[in-house]
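Quick entry, no commentary yet.
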Amino acid sequence: MMRTAWAARETQAKDALAAAKRELKALDKQTDALLTRIVETTNDAVLRAYEVKIAELDKTRALLQEKACQGLPPKGRMDKLKYNFRYLKNTMSI
């Protein structure tokens, strides 16, 4: 039962990592598009609005990068948990 739960958690972590990477690519595309618009614009109000939007995208990018850096759970932890549960089971039978 624990192995199934551990495998499900690992799959969930892999999916979250892949989603974060996809979102980072989308944010990069949005930022590039806004930078292109900044170069082409002559209106100061529009320029400021683009700068605010880019700042928001940068904050979101930082959060996603932090999320992506957390990565996957270590593989060796399942074995440690197995031994801990075995120890707890043996202490109860004493």
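second:
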Amino acid sequence: MKYVRLKWNHTNPDEPVWIFSELDERGKEVRKIECFRNGFCDVATATGSSGTAALMTLPLPDLSQLAKRDPEFDGAERFDAAALAGRRADCDSIERLAAGAKRAAAVSGLSTLSGE
């Protein structure tokens, strides 16, 4: 698995400012977390999603080309899941973040992943 972190520079409060994606060997998203300016995060997986988050159906474009095509996207980079989790990388790093986002949604009374 590969992990990508993308910063989206804009002023629209209804759109995420950070996007974290887990990619399979073909570059397609397996899981995604979209974090908003207010601190709330939406989650998308193959089995469900919260809010407006959705997995891309096509492979993620080359990160170096993405910034050239759209200057709003800044800081696109691959990273080790350990940097996100703060410890040794494993395949559950994004899942732990997704679980945290679901807990935050439940505490705030917002909807969580569909079908749960």
